[in-house]
Structures are given as C-alpha cells and as structure tokens.
Specification:
Nuclear Transport Factor 2, Chain: A, 10 helices, alpha+beta, globular, 11 strands, 474 residues, binds zinc ion
C-alpha cells in the first residue's frame, strides 16, 4: 500500500526516467509496487529532452543502437501500461529483509524478562493474516482489539476512499516466507518491537463503478515492517488467539467499532495494557530510507518523559499524527469538516475550512502514509510544539457528471509538515485521544462536537490535549 519514488539515470541514453514504486498491500496492506517510466507515461519532459541529447551525441552505428534501445523501451512501457489500470504500478519483488537485525537492546531484555520470541512471532503471523482478511473485507471488527488508533484510522480512511470508487482490493495466495524481529527497544514507559514480514501474494484492485482503474498483480513478493508496542511493566496476555476480555474474561464482540472496549468491565484493549498492539506498518522502501527522526535522547524531550502522567512516547505521538492526518484527508474529500474539527485548534480549523470550501471535490484512488516522523519538539509561550514530517502517496480523481477524470496521472508522493501543540503541564484524563474528553474522560456521544457534553471543556484546544496547530503542504 505504500509507495516510493526514485530517480534512475540511464547514462547510455542520458535519459532520466522517473521510476515510481508503489505498494498496495493491506493496510495499508493493499499491495504492489514498482514501476514504469514516468509513472507509466513517457511523454514527460525528461524523455523528450533525453532523446534530444541522446540524438546529438549519437552518430552512425551508435545512433542505430540508440534508436533500437528507445524503440525497445517504448514497446516495453506500452506493454506495461496494458497490464494495469489507473496507477501503472507493477508487481513488486523483494528479497526479504537485508542485512542482520539490530541487536536487541539489553534494557529491552531487562524490562521484558519473560519475553518469548516464538510466541511473539506467532502473534505477528496471526496479526498479518487477520489484517489481510480485514482489509479485503473492509471490516476491522475482529482486529480492532489489537490495533492502535492511528492504524485503525489509516485503514478506515482508506475504506472511505475505496467505497467512493466502489473499489475492493482482493488478496489471494498469501504465503508468509519469513517473520523476523528486526529491533526491540525501550522508549519511556513502553517497549517497542519491529518485525519484518517477508511474503508473496496476488493482488487485485477492482472497481465496479470505474473499471478503468482496475489493476491486478500476481506473484508479488514483498517485505513489510510491522511495529508493535506494549506498556513495559504489564504482564503479557494474548489478544491474538483468544476472544475474551484480557482483564475480566468476558467474551469480546467481533464487531468492535471505533473503540474496542469490554462490555462487562469497560477496559479498552489496544492501549498496550495487555498485549503487543500493532501501531505501524512500513513498506520496505520507506523503512530503508532512514529519514531523520528525533531521537528519544533529545534533551527537549526529557521533561515529557519525566512527567509520568504524560505517558509520552514518540511512537505514540506519530500514531496521533497519522490518525489526525487521515481524518484531515477524509474531510478534504467529503467536504465534511467534522472529521478534522476535534483534532484542530480554532485558528488552523478556520484556515482548513476556507481551503476545503474553495476547492473542488476530489477522491483518492489509493491513499497511504509512507512515513510519519517526529522531527522536532520545542517549548514556546508555555506550549509544546511537536512537528512531524509526513510523506504520503495518492492519486487524485475528480468525478464530474458520472465521469471520472484523473487529476494526477499516477500515484504521487507528497509531503506535509504537521505541528501538534499542548499546554505545558496539561495532563489528559484519558488515553483515548480520538474518542473521549481529555478533560473529564467521558466518551464522546457526538463526534461532531468540539465541546464535551459532560464537563463543557473545549475538546479542540491545546489546554487539554494535543491538537493540530499548523499544517503545511510542501
Ligand atoms: Zn472485561
Ligand atoms: Zn469532559
């Protein structure tokens, strides 16, 4: 489901082709990848000028060879286009995780003395297959109990986009070749593990409404990096292989909605109190980019970690950023601002509202977050300001009079800078960022409101909890 763009230079031709690699497996896992010249077209200026330069330097026999290469490429690119619909993405090939995994940090072992690698890998395997199933069926009911809000919202927003196109992504012949722990670390009150999942599958995007965007990929191989988080001191239960409340044993429902909460004791299962919770899925290319991310040892973060009521954690801040940004995209495409309002302070909300209203409606064919990285954390005027670099990939379409027109001619990666703010010292009464009042902890009965129905607190304000204060598209 993710995507990456690369430039490859073919020196013999002096032609620069942009190679787009994308991935659409479920979850983001939706699946598939790789590329064709200039996102499937070769009419870009890169090709034109490249040909001209190539022609100038060629002569006689060399020029004939050059012509053959160019014609060969055109035939190759043309055949590729026939395989796919809208995005011109191609099947992916992965050789599995490269290099050795990072050694597990001694403080991870010290904090997780009963950690059982085999049992953990069995949970990853169960999670992987269950997520593919949930993705295909656009139903997160059975997996909600062990996925974070950010992961939930990534999927949920994608379902909204796919439903707008009457699109489904079917996956078949899923074969896990290897699961390996790549890193296991401590951060604040949490333990975090990333495992690679190397697998193959067949992957089809089908739209009843707009079959011109149908695509199918077979025999894909891919490697994804699945990150799980758990509060460090808690005893590990098993949310993956039982269907009972981890606290009281009451049977959990299979159709959890926005929040997976036990009907009997009221505990919320995906906050890391009971088991490893899936909090991020990263595609191989994105994982290997190694883009800058603030380190947990950064001195600016010390007061946040020191305040135990904060439960501060970079991984979970990035989860909030993912959640908010996906709701922002849904507000953009639906022109319904309720999705983004409660995460956004009044100043930014007014700007978003103005921008959305001024803009024609569009839908996304594919929308995925490649990377959400916390890049800075500062204090100013008694407020925390935490900024994230967000890379996302999408292909925008416009529906007019029953017809669909591509705004982008392939899946394009773009970046955003998002800043969250919160009053220094403010401590929220709930860990349910999206679904409960940060001031009194009451669950939202009306998610469109920005005032708590119980205590009257302003929900979309940094006085109580993290909210979006700035958002800029690069
Ligand atoms: Zn219970
Ligand atoms: Zn309240």
């Amino acid at each position: 489901m993710k995507l990456k763009a690369k430039n490859i230079i073919l020196p013999a031709l002096l032609v620069v082709f942009t190679i787009v690699e994308a991935y659409s497996r479920a979850g983001g896992a939706g699946g598939s990848h790789s590329s064709s010249g200039d996102g499937g077209g070769f009419g870009g200026s890169g090709f034109g000028s490249g040909v001209a330069i190539g022609w100038l330097i060629g002569s006689g026999f060399g020029r004939t060879i050059l012509l053959i290469i160019i014609i060969g490429y055109i035939i190759y690119a043309f055949n590729k286009r026939k395989n796919g619909g809208g995005t011109d993405l191609e099947s992916g090939m992965s050789g599995g995780p490269q290099g050795a995994p990072k050694p597990i940090s001694p403080d991870f072992f010290a904090a997780n003395q009963n950690f059982n690698q085999e049992a953990f890998i069995a949970k990853v395997s169960t999670a992987f297959l269950a997520i593919q199933d949930a993705w295909m069926n656009k139903n997160l009911g059975k997996v909600r109990k062990w996925i974070s809000d950010g992961v939930y919202q990534r999927f949920n927003a994608q379902f909204t986009m796919m439903n707008a196109l009457d699109q489904v992504n079917t996956l078949s012949n899923i074969n896990i070749k290897q699961i390996r722990i790549e890193s296991a670390e401590q951060e604040g009150d949490y333990s975090i593990i990333t495992a690679s999942v190397y697998f193959s599958d067949d992957d089809k995007f089908i739209s009843k409404k707009y079959p011109q965007f149908d695509e199918s990929f077979s025999g894909d191989t891919a490697t994804e990096y699945w990150t799980f988080i758990k509060k460090t001191s808690v005893a590990e239960k098993d949310l993956y292989h039982t269907n009972n409340c981890p606290k009281c044993g009451y049977p959990m429902k299979d159709d959890a909605g926005d929040v997976s909460k036990c009907e009997s004791c009221g505990t919320v299962t995906y906050l890391g109190d009971y088991d490893w919770v899936l909090c991020e899925i990263t595609q191989e290319d994105d994982y290997n980019r190694n883009n800058y991310r603030l380190d947990k040892t950064d001195p600016n973060l010390a007061p946040l970690y020191a305040n135990k009521d904060e439960h501060f954690c970079i991984q979970l801040m990035e989860d909030k950023a993912s959640n908010a940004i996906m709701q922002y995209f849904v507000s953009h495409t639906t022109h319904d601002l309720k999705y983004v309002h409660r995460f956004t302070n009044d100043g930014l909300f007014a700007r978003i509202e103005e921008a959305v209203k001024a803009q024609e409606k569009y839908v996304f064919n594919r929308l995925f977050l490649n990377e959400v990285s916390m890049i800075s954390c500062i204090q100013a005027d008694g407020m925390w300001l935490v900024t994230f670099n967000i890379l996302y990939s999408s292909m925008r379409l416009k529906e007019t009079e029953g017809r669909i027109v591509a705004i982008d001619n392939t899946v394009i990666e773009r970046s955003l800078a998002l800043t969250l703010t919160k009053k220094v010292g403010a401590v929220n009464k709930t860990e349910l960022w999206s679904f409960a009042c940060p001031s009194c902890g009451a669950p939202y009965t009306d998610t469109t409101t920005t005032k708590c129905g119980y205590c009257d607190a302003q929900i979309n304000s940094g006085s109580n909890d993290w909210v979006m204060v700035n958002l800029s598209e690069a």
